[in-house]
Amino acid sequence: MKSDTIVVVSILLISTTFPSFGDGAKILSIFGYPGPSQYFFISPLLKGLAKRGHEVVSISTFPQKEPVQNFRDIAVMENSQLFEITDSYFSEFMNLARTGETMVTNILENPEVKNVLAEEKFDLLIVEIFFSEALLGLGEYFKAPVITVSTFGTVNFMDYLVQNPSPLSYVPHLAMPYGDHMSLLERMHNVIMQTLDDLNFNYCMMPLQEELYRKYFPQATLTLDEARKNVSLVLLNDHFSLRSARPYVPNMIEVGGLHIKRQPDPLPQDLQELLDKSGQDVIYFSLGSNVKSKDLSKEKIKMFLDAFRNLKYTILWKFENDTLPNKPKNVIIRKWYPQPSVLAHPKVKLFISHGGYLSTTETIFHGKPILGIPLLGDQFMNVKNAVNAGYALSLSLEQVTSESLKKTILELLTNPIYTQNVQRRSKQFRDTPLTPLETAIYWVEYVLRHEGAVHMRNAGVDLNFFQYHNIDVYLILLTALVAIVKLLIVFVRLGKHLFVDADHNDGKSRKAKIN
User: Fold this and answer.
1) What is the pLDDT at residue 20?
2) Residue 70's closest CA among 24, 38, 32?
3) Sign of the CA dihedral 13, 18, 20, 26?
4) Radius of gyration over alpha carbons of the chain, in Å?
5) In angstroms, rounded to a whole number, what is the distance separating the alpha carbons of residues 128 and 33?
6) Judging by DSSP bridges, how do beta strands 26-30 and 124-128 pair with one another?
7) What's the distance, Cα to Cα, between the start and end of the chain in Å?
8) Is residue 484 classed exposed, middle or buried when 0-12, 13-18 and 19+ CB atoms within 10 A define those classes?
9) Is 180 exposed, middle or buried (0-12, 13-18, 19+ CB in 10 A)?
10) pLDDT digit string (tens) for 13-45?
């Protein structure tokens, strides 16, 4: 009840602070992937817009358990069986491309979605674009502005939508564990990785999306490339205090921590009592939603248990089986924990995490140091950034032994510098004029008020590759420079020839006078 009251008060505050859009808009949201973290991130924004009086239609695999006013679900449960990312960045690229193709097809072939396309109109679309670019055809179809959302910060295919600059000299590729001060070798790796990524994206993924775009939007006047550049706004789960300062165009907005409530939900009563009455400090352990602890090898699970058994701390382990053989008494397993509320409890002193970005923002917000065990995708970079910032230590899964785990945990818990660093970072993250939710609502309604906010559009989206990078200018200047150099060489040779001839004729004249 307390949490609901705070949400209502927050929305009322927004209502009195922000300009009114007028009559509520009709908004279509599409988050087709079955990743809980992705929908968990956007859900507060959609519900916040509904509370503001907008009518929200949400296409996802996560329908609401209880009715929400001004909110209607279209559950495309066919997508709930799609696989999630379980391997390295490139090895699953084609699988992701095929998954994106299936996801888009399931959405646009869904009978209820077809009915919506045939009978309804929308003022705005909020769409997750992750190997699902064909969905951008809905912008022209409904003649409505499009806002896209990235739950993991920006990457090349998000930058492309608004021509956001991402200099490879200091912006590391998502899958590279580099900071913003890279060595020469790291910059070389970064450029090579990005080039391979671009080739994969443009020649493996985009052809599949092109086919879907032509199939489902045969009347479109825009090409898919033009539809990709017809985006009004990009909302990013990012903040300069979380990673590194970097450039953004005006219509790419940071709303990192959008999903985090300033006042966390109450813990379940039994868990609240367990933490309150615990005579020991508490460690929280979760590998996220994509990789499950129960799928670790028996040898690795034993190593974790052996390390935990020798620690004088209580360990809350998100473990997806009902039982865990040989579990010591200080380890408490549950298939699910309310993570933000757990991290907010003062008894919790450390988060053993996979380094997912939502988890990273939550632990920074609540000021708890991290033992990072990255497994895939951006987790390696997230953990490396946390280590560089001084509030984390890292172990690869291969490095995990009972001894290494115990040693690293004790270092994090007994050396106060890690907690001091993360609490300093927490103050920076929290110090904003508006909350991330308020910021997101403001900019969504800004796009509505200004009919797509075309004035925020970066002119770079209208330039081709050669124009954007001034390659044509440099070629002309280089050609001119070469021409000038050649002319100078010609003039020098001609001058030298004339000088030699003159000297030769002068010599002949002097010889004739002597004779």
Assistant:
1) 54
2) 24
3) negative
4) 29
5) 9
6) parallel
7) 123
8) exposed
9) middle
10) 555 455 555 578 999 999 998 888 888 899 999
pLDDT (average), residues 179-202: 90
Angle of CA points 39, 258, 362, to nearest 5°:
90
Contact between 190 and 176 (Cβ < 8 Å): yes
CA dihedral defined by 264, 267, 273, 275, rounded to 10 degrees? Answer: -60
Copy the structure tokens of residue 74.
């279209």
Residues 6+ apart with CB under 8 A from 307: 402, 403, 405, 406, 409
Residues contacting 398, CB < 8 A, separation 6+: none
CB 50 within 8 A of CB 70: yes
Distance (Å, rounded) from C-alpha 383 to C-alpha 350? Answer: 14
Chain-centre distance for alpha carbon 172: 13
Mean of the pLDDT values across residues 466-492?
91
Rounded Cα–Cα distance for residues 309 and 273 (Å):
22
Burial class (CB in 10 A: 0-12, 13-18, 19+), 499: exposed
CA–CA distance from 26 to each of 29, 62, 121, 295, 417 (Å)? 10, 20, 8, 43, 49
Say if residues 360 and 242 touch (Cβ distance below 8 Å).
yes
- Residue 281 burial (CB count, 10 A): 15
Helix (H) or strand (E) holding 385: helix 379-388
Record the tokens describing residue 303, joined without a space. Answer: 């190593």
Average pLDDT over residues 134-144: 96
- Residue the block writes with tokens 């906010």: 453
CB atoms within 10 A of CB 503: 10
For Cα atoms 444, 450, 454, give the angle at the middle one, nearest 5 degrees. Answer: 95
- The SS3 call for residue 281 is coil
d(CA 157, CA 136): 13
